[in-house]
Amino acid sequence: MKKILVADCELVRQLVKRTFPPGDYLVLEAGDNVTALEITKKEIPELMLVAMDDSQVDGKELCRAIRDDPALIGAVIIMLTADFTDEEREKALDMEADDCIAKPFSPLVLLEVVQACLQKGGAPRGEGSEVSSPRHALTGKEADFQDYERSQLLLYADDFAKVYKEKTHELKKAGRRIKELEHIKDAFVATVSHEIRTPLSLILGYINLINELKKVHPLDNALADYISRIETASNKLDDMVKQILEFFKLRAGLVRYQKLDISIQNLLESVIDDFRRDAEAKELHLELKVLSEMNPLLASWERLNIAFSHLVRNAIIFTPAGEKVWIEACDSREGITVKVCDTGSGIHPDEQENIFSPFYQVTDFLEREVGGLGLGLPVAKHIVEDHGGTITVESSVGEGAVFTVFLPRAHVREI
């Protein structure tokens, strides 16, 4: 009786057991390559079907151990892989395996590969290269073997369905856990931010008191400089805390929108004016291009001002000195389209779907040259979507970016 060792998942092991008749073969099972190595020391299998990728012992290491064992000289090794390409087969052969089979595979494919390997000279210990298989037990008619293979594949499909169901359940469970952790993280950040406000308010209060007192009792220059630095840092921290708390209020639907018929053109002109000095400091050309007559839009001036301010601020930050930042606005019957454009560093395609996620930074915090919490774009996205609109980005590295905002008419979420 020939011994076959199969080291892979239960689904593959069951298929192998069903393919080779128990009267002619003893199928030895291993759930991983470590167990497979232990079995080879005791059972001396003639044929081994092993996983190419294993978390503990990979296929190369396993092949080397088998080939170095004098008791296993002439044993046939066939690698099993879920990524079967010409490169993968060459990799298996480089490992000194006899061949490679891509998963999932049918009983017929398995038998043909085994037969070919044995005929190439890997026949175990002089017992011949003929593979005893279910085909020999049948009448010899091709239809009979096809019926057998079909039944085997149905069993394989049934096993696969069970595994799929189990994995789907595990993924759903993991998804729920991720949502729970996300909620815990949000609650933690919001709580810490809220708790920071109390001592921070006290610090800012004393700074204001000192500023009033120094009008009567002037401070020496060094001490006045220290107080100024403390004030600047405290105000920056206060702004960050306000951003975090405002974002979580926005995401929780706790921000109220005052809807009025507003002029988007006037709003954008106001945003341009607010950032004119920042642009001039970097020698950037900043302008608004109105491409059509602009009609009033039912929206929140305050909230849209925040959204477009975040977009323009980002454009200025990530655009080198001497380049351009501009806004294009166009009206239509369906709504208003606003594009915030720049000739800056651009955004890699792999990063574009993540930039609207809270706290996400395109570069590592140890490497990036600019500060920020990574909340500007998520806030802008929330505000635009609360108006029933959309925000998208088009960008290539080194060629700038275009953020397109579409605001439909007569729509803003009631909050």
SSE blueprint:
Elements: E1 2-7, H1 10-19, E2 25-30, H2 33-42, E3 47-51, H3 59-67, E4 76-81, H4 86-94, E5 99-102, H5 107-122, H6 134-137, H7 142-216, H8 221-251, E6 260-262, H9 264-274, H10 276-281, E7 285-290, E8 297-299, H11 301-317, E9 324-331, E10 335-342, H12 349-352, H13 376-386, E11 390-395, E12 401-408
Helix pairs in contact: 1-5, 1-7, 2-3, 7-8, 9-11, 11-13
What does this structure look like?
This protein is an alpha/beta fold and 415 residues long. Helix content is 51%, strand content 17%. The protein is built from 13 helices and 12 strands. The protein has helices spanning 10-19, 33-42, 59-67, 86-94, 107-122, 134-137, 142-216, 221-251, 264-274, 276-281, 301-317, 349-352, 376-386; strands at residues 2-7, 25-30, 47-51, 76-81, 99-102, 260-262, 285-290, 297-299, 324-331, 335-342, 390-395, 401-408. The strands form 3 sheets. The chain has a 5-stranded parallel sheet, sandwiched between helices. A hairpin with a 5-residue loop joins strand 11 (390-395) and strand 12 (401-408). The longest helix is centred in the middle third of the chain and has 75 residues, at 142-216. The protein is elongated and about 100 Å long. The N and C termini lie far apart (76 Å).
